[in-house]
């Protein structure tokens, strides 16, 4: 998600900044927050790896989502593409208590298949032709068996950018991009999107994407907390940077929106970092661009 960040210092980062890099998590230091009240896990942590998910519907939806990975992290061969990345723990100086620390995090954003050759993602993930040309759209970056890291995928699952159909990041809250792929996708189903009307307050939601760039995580158990804004709604989704562009589904498996913004991801606990946590009704919530915003461009 795109998030405002106060300057911080970590051994794994080499420079300070005023805003988080698009798609990357944000960290608040103890000096910046005397009370660690801002959180990103709402209630229980509902994130699951693909192999842990029993729902046939959720597994089918996940099959039509993609990881956005920079070309520099891939070795593309004729048949197999290899994926290289650091572990989550090393990348973010995690405390030992944090989940998924030994998994690798190659992705920088998430996306979903909304037409045979079109991916929907967050606008701040792909702003320019150069951004698009340096990005690969990878299906199947997921942990399908316990303990098995997805360090390679068939090259047929790796797609390139042919064109940015539309990309916008507006002050009104709309933040999305539609990317035309270099060829049609034949082995993954096009996802259903809401065509009219709007999601209601209290509606149940599921988000599927790549928090902090990790292999696919499916997080159910969320609800719409506010639906008053014209171009986005707010929900208590368990999401991080890297989830930017993730499809947010209703209980029927229809896309309601694209995850774009949220609260601070991590805070320091001593010399290492931990996830922010809050109650299901606490903190600011996570912002989701309404999927109906993309319809004029499809």
Automatic annotation (TrEMBL):
It holds the Pfam family Trypsin_2. It comes from the Bacteria. The keyword rRNA-binding does not apply. The keyword Signal applies. InterPro entries: Glutamyl_endopeptidase, Peptidase_S1_PA, Peptidase_S1_PA_chymotrypsin, Peptidase_S1A, V8_ser_AS. SUPFAM superfamilies: Trypsin-like serine proteases. GO terms for biological process: proteolysis. It comes from Bdellovibrio bacteriovorus. This is Peptidase. GO terms for molecular function: serine-type peptidase activity. Keywords: Hydrolase, Protease, Serine protease, Signal.
């Amino acid at each position: 998600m795109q998030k405002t960040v106060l300057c911080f210092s970590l051994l794994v980062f080499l420079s300070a900044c005023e805003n988080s890099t698009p798609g990357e998590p944000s960290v608040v230091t103890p000096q910046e927050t005397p009370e660690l009240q801002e959180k990103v896990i709402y209630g229980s942590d509902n994130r699951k790896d693909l192999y842990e998910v029993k729902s046939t519907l959720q597994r089918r939806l996940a099959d039509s989502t993609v990881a956005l990975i920079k070309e520099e992290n891939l070795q593309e061969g004729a048949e197999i593409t290899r994926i290289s990345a650091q572990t989550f723990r090393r990348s973010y100086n995690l405390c030992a208590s944090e989940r998924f620390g030994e998994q690798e995090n190659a992705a920088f954003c998430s996306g979903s298949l909304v037409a045979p050759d079109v991916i929907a993602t967050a606008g701040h993930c792909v702003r320019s032709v150069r951004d698009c040309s340096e990005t690969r759209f990878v299906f199947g970056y997921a942990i399908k068996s316990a303990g098995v890291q997805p360090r390679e995928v068939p090259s047929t699952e790796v797609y390139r950018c042919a064109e940015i159909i539309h990309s916008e990041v507006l002050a009104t809250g709309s933040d999305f991009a539609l990317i035309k792929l270099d060829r049609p996708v034949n082995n993954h189903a096009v996802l259903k999107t809401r065509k009219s009307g709007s999601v209601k307050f209290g509606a149940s939601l599921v988000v599927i994407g790549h928090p902090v760039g990790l292999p696919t995580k499916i997080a159910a158990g969320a609800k719409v907390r506010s639906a008053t804004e014209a171009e986005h709604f707010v929900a208590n989704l368990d999401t991080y940077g890297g989830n930017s562009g993730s499809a947010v589904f209703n209980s029927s498996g229809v896309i309601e929106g694209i995850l774009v913004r949220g609260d601070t991801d991590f805070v320091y606990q001593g010399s290492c970092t931990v996830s922010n946590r809050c109650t299901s009704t606490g903190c600011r919530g996570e912002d989701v661009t309404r999927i109906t915003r993309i319809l004029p461009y499809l």
